[in-house]
Amino acid sequence: MLEGVTAIYPGSFDPVTNGHLELVNRARHIFHRVVVSVLMNEQKKPLFTLPQRVAFLEQVTRPWENVEVASFQGLLIDFADEVGARVIMRGIRAVTDYDYEFQMALMNRRMQPQIETIFMVPSEAYAYLSSSLVKEVSRLGGDVAGLVPEAVEKELVSRFGR
Questions:
Q1: Structural domain boundaries enclosing 11
Q2: Which residues have a catalytic role annotated?
Q3: What is the CATH number of the domain that holds 94?
Q4: Quick one: which of 131, 132, 138, 116 has its CA closest to 21?
């Protein structure tokens, strides 16, 4: 474990998936502290409110002592400074993710050279999984069991049925 190193894992988490949680679980064994950072972006129209997304994450990460959940708005690097993070952690599933994340990492480095961005690849079981895909499948009446935490699955079923 990198003693004293705080990493942040930013995202909209709308909703949190088991793919997100797999990355958080791996990161908590690497970093002294992991702050799962829920983006408050008023331009997006999320399915779940910010308090709901934070609550889902708090519920599922509660057993992990070195994992915290927080929300933020504005520049990610400002939030990283605020929580004392030296690392921004991002998950990459495919080349399309990499293109976007690479640009963001370079911009963040330009603004805060002391904060590093690392990319983590999900396990094969979650390599295809995204929040958007989960919402689409659920809206169309598909089963998302095993793809999201149980509380999220129940909420999706209550909204869209099955």
A1: 2-127
A2: 20, 44, 93, 131
A3: 3.40.50.620
A4: 131
